[in-house]
TrEMBL record:
<protein>
    <recommendedName>
        <fullName>Transporter</fullName>
    </recommendedName>
</protein>
<dbReference type="InterPro" id="IPR004776">
    <property type="entry name" value="Mem_transp_PIN-like"/>
</dbReference>
<feature type="transmembrane region" description="Helical">
    <location>
        <begin position="76"/>
        <end position="95"/>
    </location>
</feature>
<keyword id="KW-1003">Cell membrane</keyword>
<keyword id="KW-0813">Transport</keyword>
<feature type="transmembrane region" description="Helical">
    <location>
        <begin position="263"/>
        <end position="280"/>
    </location>
</feature>
<feature type="transmembrane region" description="Helical">
    <location>
        <begin position="107"/>
        <end position="130"/>
    </location>
</feature>
<keyword id="KW-0472">Membrane</keyword>
<feature type="transmembrane region" description="Helical">
    <location>
        <begin position="136"/>
        <end position="157"/>
    </location>
</feature>
<feature type="transmembrane region" description="Helical">
    <location>
        <begin position="14"/>
        <end position="33"/>
    </location>
</feature>
<dbReference type="GO" id="GO:0055085">
    <property type="term" value="P:transmembrane transport"/>
</dbReference>
<dbReference type="GO" id="GO:0005886">
    <property type="term" value="C:plasma membrane"/>
</dbReference>
<comment type="similarity">
    <text>Belongs to the auxin efflux carrier (TC 2.A.69) family.</text>
</comment>
<dbReference type="Pfam" id="PF03547">
    <property type="entry name" value="Mem_trans"/>
</dbReference>
<feature type="transmembrane region" description="Helical">
    <location>
        <begin position="201"/>
        <end position="223"/>
    </location>
</feature>
<dbReference type="InterPro" id="IPR038770">
    <property type="entry name" value="Na+/solute_symporter_sf"/>
</dbReference>
<feature type="transmembrane region" description="Helical">
    <location>
        <begin position="53"/>
        <end position="70"/>
    </location>
</feature>
Amino acid sequence: MPNSKPQQHSSKEMNSIVLSLFPLVALIASGYLFKKYRFFSDEFWAGAEKLNYYILFPALLFSTLSTAKIDLQSLSTAIIAMLIVVLAVTAFLYILRMFWHIPPARFGVHVQSMVRFNTYIGLALVTSLFKSEGMAILAILLALCIPLVNVISVLALTSKEHMAIKPILIALLKNPLIVSCAVGAAVNALQIPIWEGFTQFIKLFSVSSLPLGLLCVGAALQFMQIKKDIVVLAADTFARLLAVPALAYAVCTWFGLPSLQTQILVIFFALPTASASYILTKVLGGDSQLMAAVISFQTLCAAVTLPLVIWWIS
């Protein structure tokens, strides 16, 4: 009898986590089934991804950052903790590369599997669990982390002979997610007034982004390559979904971060890698088949690991 209350509390927490995650998993599964059974054409999915990447998701980031109550002083330690985790993981991978002589085509895949994150799943999950306050914190972290992980990913995929600063800078300046984060933060910081009609217009775009983004995540899943590289995939997935969140929790504890910031940072580092990693890998001549397998396997495993990580930190 003495243990009944803690067990009941734990059961309620897990039930709440499952209820928050189920719609996300269901949308991803729906996207996969729609694509598998050709409910929509390949052209539809290509158009949907383009619409979301260039219009809807940037609108969501702009809307969130332009209206968020940003207190950078209270978030400064969380930002430092985030940077430490990203740079520590990147440095560790470069050390491994020195010993194992991994070519850029595959090294870039491993780096992206560790440092990139699925923003659709992250924002949808944090919004479901922590509402607007959590969403604002995550959006600020995204605004700072998106440019950083893009630079790290491009450098990891590029050989020394082809490395040049100008193309990397141009690619960053053209990235719609980076641009929307920068403009949204500037509007907020300078307190630039926005006409209410335009605000509502942007919000309508914003609410469409996450459902469509999760459907596209499901449609992009590919499982044919998993059997060929199962050991590599298992190592990358374990590190990304469990080891890196544990490192993030240790760093947050070391800095003494508040509970909400700790939870959001740990969830942030427990997300599977970004679906857009496949496009970047293909464009830069990396091992795109391995990247597709990593994305698919991590997304599949995250359906199990994310509830466990959230329950652990709560």
